[in-house]
Amino acid sequence: MHIFSVGFDQSKNPLRAEPEDSSKIFPANEDYFYSPKKIKNDWLMVEDEDGNLFWIKWYDEDP
What pLDDT does residue 4 have? Predict the structure, then answer.
């Protein structure tokens, strides 16, 4: 992971507790940067500025 931060659309791709579509959703802080940590299948783990870890989908087969 050589990227400092990633952007994502919270309304279409919310922060989740686990790499599952049914996992608990957390609100994103628009003032924070989210740094990529690791990839698991279609999911990307990101870390916020407070050190909290979340998951977002980085790839979706559905257009």
Answer: 76
Token pair listed for 47: 């870390």
Q: Which residues of 4-23 are buried (b: 16+ CB within 10 A; e: fewer)?
A: eeeebeeeeebbbeebeeee
Measured distance CA(15)–CA(51) in Å, rounded = 14
Amino acid at 17: A
Q: What does the block give as tokens for 8?
A: 């994502």
For residue 42, give both structure tokens.
Answer: 């279609």
Q: Mind listing the pLDDT tens digit for each residue in 24-35?
A: 999 999 999 999
List the single range of 4-8, 21-25, 58-62 with lowest mean pLDDT: 58-62
Cβ atoms of 14 and 25 closer than 8 Å: yes
Separation between Cα atoms, residue 39 and residue 32, nearest integer Å: 20
